[in-house]
Design brief:
14% helix; nine-stranded antiparallel β-sheet; 159 residues; mainly beta; 2 helices
């Protein structure tokens, strides 16, 4: 599984976020609270949904499943002028990303991430950058369907 390398110009998002850890995964709770309200967001770009993770510095240096990070359920927007009550905004800075295609069930995602961080990244010409990670769930995303596809954007910089 080889990624494509993309340079992101920066993006703006509106959505909901929650503090969580891998040992106490609250992803379902987050999306359950966001999805019924996503149509309240104005100035959206396309129909893709975004799962954004903001990890503290050095989070992956000594992986701890109980370490907390911020997870977002969001949509991309052109402006941050009209943020619905109970939602927030996040802006992703410009930078380079390794983009992987995860094919299969969402529940099989840990195996894909394991490959990325334990196999691909250490043998690549890149190191992890301290910027948000995100997944793009577009037309081919079908949640826990074996035919589902989503893009995993991992922030990288040259070694």
């Amino acid at each position: 599984m080889q990624p494509r390398i993309e340079t992101l110009a920066g993006k703006k998002f509106i959505g909901k976020h929650i503090s969580m850890c891998f040992a106490d995964n609250k992803t379902f709770e987050l999306w359950r609270s966001f999805m019924p309200r996503r149509k309240e967001i104005a100035d959206t770009v396309g129909t893709n949904l975004y799962s954004i993770e903001v990890y503290p510095p050095l989070f992956f240096n000594a992986f701890n499943p109980k370490a907390t990070f911020e997870k977002w359920a969001a949509v991309e927007v052109t402006a941050l002028d009209n943020i619905p009550e109970g939602m927030d905004s996040i802006t992703l800075p410009a930078g380079m990303y390794a983009v992987f295609i995860h094919k299969g069930r969402a529940s099989d995602g840990p195996a894909t991430y394991s490959y990325i961080f334990n196999n691909w990244l250490p043998h690549s010409n890149y190191v992890l950058d301290d910027r948000p990670h995100f997944a793009v769930m577009g037309d081919k995303y079908k949640n826990d369907d074996p035919l589902s596809e989503e893009e995993l954007w991992i922030p990288v910089e040259n070694k």
